[in-house]
Amino acid sequence: MPKTTDAKKRAGTTESTEDENSDGQELQTVKGTLSKWTNYIHGWQQRYFELQDGVLVYYKSEYDTSFGCRGPLADSTGVDFKGEALTFKSTTSAILVTLEHCIDIMQQREDTWRKRLEKEMERRKRIDDQYKQCSAEVRKLCSQQKPVNFNGPDYEEGPHSALNEEEWHDAVDAALEKIDQEDDR
Fold first, then answer.
1. Contact at 8 Å (CB) between 58 and 75?
2. Do 16 and 27 form a contact (C-beta atoms < 8 A)?
3. What's the pTM value of the predicted model, to 2 decimals?
4. Quick one: what percent of the chain has pLDDT higher than 70?
C-alpha cells in the first residue's frame, strides 16, 4: 500500500485508510468529529479529527480538510493527552482564581455603593426632619404674630392707599380744612 507523504498529511488528504509504517506494520486512519476546547470565549467547539500514523490532526470541519489541518495535537510518538489535560487543568484553575478575585472586587464595590446609598438615605432623612421642624416653627410664629392692621394712616394715603384718586383729593381737602380751622382758633 502507498505511504502518505508529510505534505499530504498537513493538507489533510490520505490516499488510503490503511498505511504501513517503517516497521512494516499497517496503521489505520481514524476519522470523526470530537469536541475541542478552543478558547474561553467560544468554549467547546465541534472539530473534525483524524488519527494518521499516530499523529492526531484536526480541521475546523470535514469539508475544510482541503485547506490544511488546524494543527497537530501530538508528534509521531503518540498523543500526549496527559500533557493536554494538565495544561487544561492549570489554565482553568488560573482562570477560576482570577474569577474569584474579580468576584471579590465586585463584592467590595457593591459594599461601597451600599454604604453610599445608606449614607445618602440618612442625609435625606435628616433634611426632611429639618424641613418639617422649620415648617412647624414658621407655622407657630405665624399663629403668634399680630394681624396687620390695614386701617393705619399709611394705608389711607400714599402708594399703599386703598382710596382712588378722587377720594384721595377729597381727603386732602378735608385735612387742609381741618388744619385751617385749628389755626383759626
1. no
2. no
3. 0.32
4. 65
